[in-house]
Design a protein that fits this description.
The chain is of the alpha/beta class. It has three domains: about 1-330, Glycoside hydrolase, family 3, N-terminal domain (TIM Barrel); about 360-550, Glycoside hydrolase family 3 C-terminal domain (Rossmann fold, 3-Layer(aba) Sandwich); about 620-739, Immunoglobulin-like. Helix content is about 25%, strand content about 20%. The chain has 18 helices and 29 strands. It has a six-stranded mixed β-sheet with strand order 1-2-3-4-6-9. Strands 10-17-16-15-11-12 form a six-stranded mixed β-sheet, with helices on both faces. α5 (about 110-125) packs parallel to α6 (about 155-170). The chain starts with a helix and ends with a strand. Bound molecules: beta-D-glucopyranose. Beta-D-glucopyranose (BGC) binds next to loops.
Amino acid sequence: MKKITLLLFAFASLLQAQVPVYLDPTKDIEARVEDALKRMTLAEKIGVIHAQSKFSSAGVKRLGIPDFWTDDGPHGVRPDVLWDEWEQAGQSNDSCVAFPALTCLAASWNPEVSRAYGHALGEEGLYRGKGMILAPGINIYRTPLGGRNFEYMGEDPYLTSRMVVPYVQGLQSVGVASCVKHYCLNNDEEYRHQVNVIVSDRALHEIYLPGFEAAVKEGKAWGVMGAYNLYKDEHNCHNQYTLNKILKKDWGFDGVLVSDWGGAHDFDQAVRNGLDMEFGTWTDGLTMGATNAYDMYYLSKQYQKAIVEGKYTTKELDEKVRRVLRLFFRTTMNKQRPYGFLCSESHYEVAQKVAAEGIVLLQNEGNILPIKPQGKKILVVGENAIKMMTVGGGSSSLKAQHEISPLEGLKMRLKGIGNVDFARGYVGDVGGNYNGVSTGQNLKDDRTPEVLIAEAVEKAKTADYVIIFGGLNKSDYQDCEGHDRKSMELPYGQDKLITAIAAVNKNTIYVNISGNAVCMPWRKQVPAIVQGWFLGSEAGIGLADVLLGNTNPSGHLPFTWYENLSQVGAHSFGEAAFPGIWREGKKIIDEEYKEGIYVGYRWTDKQKLKPAFAFGHGLSYTTFKVSNLKAVNAVTTDGNMTFTVDVTNTGSMEGSDVVQLYITDSKCSVDRPVKELKAFQKVSLKPGETKTVTLKTDKRALSFWDEASDDWKAEPGQFVAQAGDASDRLTCKVKFTLQ
Ligand code: BGC
């Protein structure tokens, strides 16, 4: 009997060694994390904290935990690359829906649209087998030269916070982790690996961190990506202050801190300073990396060896692994995950909705928009009317299932109604390849700028309307990762073209495609200007619908549209403030954010500058009145306030307005901005309709970051709240007191 039991036992343990020991799915996540952690060997633990390919890390086969796949982010799920190459894997199932860029999403000022965006992206990611999407990007727009501003949500920490939370929640609601990036202070691109940002604690907390804090505390993001740059002389992928202290201790972040690709640079810091998953590192120091360098990563073999040799205990390792396991149980090991869908109709609808709500009507003199197309000759001009924009820009480059260009969109919508002609106008970048994905377009045109302009002008003379599509194009230095723009002017001689056309046709409409403000020296000569962003798959439809009035525009600027760089805080303190000054040896460049908290409208307000278009500006085909702002409580002791304000559609078309509430501290012991956005709501109204909107603010809305106590502080006294529908169109105000 004893013999038989022993035999059975031996057989059972043999089985145990060979068959995966699946983890009990009924236990709660923390119990499962501890359970799994106990069963893992040192090698298995090391295996899950660093990459095994360009975009994946290992699971634990023995325990039935699958490999973990990440992907970019943030405008659609990036096509798959080869295991250890940046070349395309050549899949036929990785064409996606390209959603509008995040600047457009922010311009919608509609958190529910952001939730739908995250959700649709999550479903696409799920279909493609991704456990984490490297998105969204929320670095603050500090200068219009910032190469990646198009992937971010503008200049204001409050707007960014309100928009990032539902994006993260929507994405994670389908069991795909969000990896909010790039934490933190990655506000320009040119020297992103070498820049050491010097910024006051106050600006750090008031301007640069709130979006991340909201994503973590309210959005409950499961992932955050460390930024490439340095802060306090440590890279942000392993930074004692930003990661261990602020992110993990102060905010209680329980997810994984993922390094940006190749963002880890120091072994001991990688172990101790908050990095949980290392991706993309080229630890042999070669610029182009080594083949299959994964064993050479900091958090790989050398870490394992150092633990075996007793140089580190497993304290830091177990903490990292716990977080990674938590990520697994929230995503790939979550049996409740719904199904994924790729390129579904509902995703295209979301893409259209974001475009419809985010396109900004900047100017519309004489109400020349919307176009009345019946029997009219419409001339479309410009490379951006035909160029596919979903390919390019860096890691957010996509392989879209389809992309409707502005010219195609107009032709589709005007079929049988108007007559559309096209003139190239200028030649910008005729390339259409990024990272092995090609648009397949041949945009080559060898004519000289003079010939191109002459042709467009000639045609413009007899057109009823001219619509010029210009701007930037996601090529290097034109809204693209890795570099900043070299100037704020439009490239490729577009100013000349636009001026020449406006001189011969008074119905000229300029549609700007970009994620950044551009100089518009001809602004007064062109009656209508539309900000058309990078709109993704449905670009042409979104734009045509606004131009033709099928959509009443309701986007508002998420950043200040400066006339030129002389109006920008970051450019007002010489090169020390941008792009920075190299230290001896040229390894590190110090960039000091000398404008402090005065970013965007906070700067133009303080300096009394009039930008081309103010933060929060956006017109409609109808008109609105924002009036009757009231504080429900005139005195607050806990800092909580409730306001009501009326918004009326005073025009003749149904439309949506964005009611914005700004707060001013009348008297304070520290210098404070003239006003700051603290609440907003998008409201849809029929002609003649009035709605009373309720806006609530809390103590944080009255507070500044007090460097002495290292905390938020609201000083008792009088405050003023103002409401309107742009930062320069505040039409009512009310005073209240914090006691
Ligand atoms: C970018 C990240 C991106 C990563 C992976 C990096 O170069 O900065 O935003 O997620 O590459 O593609």
